[in-house]
Known about the structure:
Blueprint: E1 4-11, E2 20-22, E3 25-28, E4 31-32, E5 45-49, H1 50-60, E6 73-76, E7 88-91, E8 94-101, H2 111-116, H3 121-124, E9 126-132, E10 134-136, E11 141-145, E12 148-156, H4 158-161, H5 169-183, E13 187-195, H6 199-211, E14 216-220, H7 231-238, E15 241-242, H8 244-255, E16 268-271, E17 274-279, H9 283-293, H10 297-304
Parallel strand pairs: 5-6, 12-13, 12-14, 14-17
Antiparallel strand pairs: 1-2, 1-6, 1-11, 3-4, 3-10, 5-9, 7-8, 7-11, 8-9, 15-16, 16-17
Helix pairs in contact: 5-9, 6-7, 8-9
Amino acid sequence: MSEIKVVSVNISEEKGVIKKPVEKIFLNKKGVENDAHAGDWHRQVSLLAKESIEKFEKTLGRKLEYGEFAENITTEGITLYKTKPGDRLYIGDVELEVTQIGKKCHGDGCAIFSQVGKCVMPKEGIFAKVLKTGEVKPNDTMKYLPKVIKILIVTLSDRASKGEYEDKSGPKINEMLTKYYKSIEMEHLIDHKIIPDDADQLKQILETAKEDMYDVIMTTGGTGIGPRDITVETVQEMLDKEIPGIMEMIRIKYGQEKPNALLSRGVAGVAGSSLVYTLPGSVKAVQEYMTEILKTQQHLIYMLHGIDVH
């Protein structure tokens, strides 16, 4: 990757109007000091790439000034609109977290649209919130660090833990997660453990994973009513919040044709900053559960980290 740098910093005292370049800006916990976008919300700082501006110069047939699209920070060397919410940007002491890609265009109701004729921000601009404060000025170097989704899969099986039985459900979860995160172009790291149906071991693993701030923890096995099925009650004790709708919908959807699907006691919820799901032990059930779970997983991760992507 070529060097990423700041080419301009820009301020305006009103939202929706062209910003003017300044010598430097100071970012506090609410955004850019003395700028209209500052506040206790997720769109504190707006960024736009010089490369995007140059594309629009060809469309408009004229030279554009930095800040004309109301961006606080104009960058060079990075395709900003390909970043993802949760990614980090570092400029000196400043640390920003990407919170939104693009925005709704207000058309004729926007001063920028009226003066410039078009706006690039709805498609190629991004927004961020300030995690660490500091000063930013032109020619500062920027570093980009994509968020890595950390995932832990725990297979619970007395036989598989002894090597008497091949674990197939854990690898199936791994396969579906890998395909999913590749499809949405998000970096991810998956760890996998196989343990016996032991509540103490599971509790220790969950506590460590919570401390290590895994984004997603998935167990497979132990969701039935047998004497060794301890997964659900062990996990449930550690949840700060339950998300009952996911598992209820899965049981009802698949239970209409296969009544045995109604017998799983699986739960989903939040433990610290981790999403936790308890899945049955069969490969077919894992396929069904994962198909539904993955429809909301990215959104839940954003919600959990306070990122508004509506």
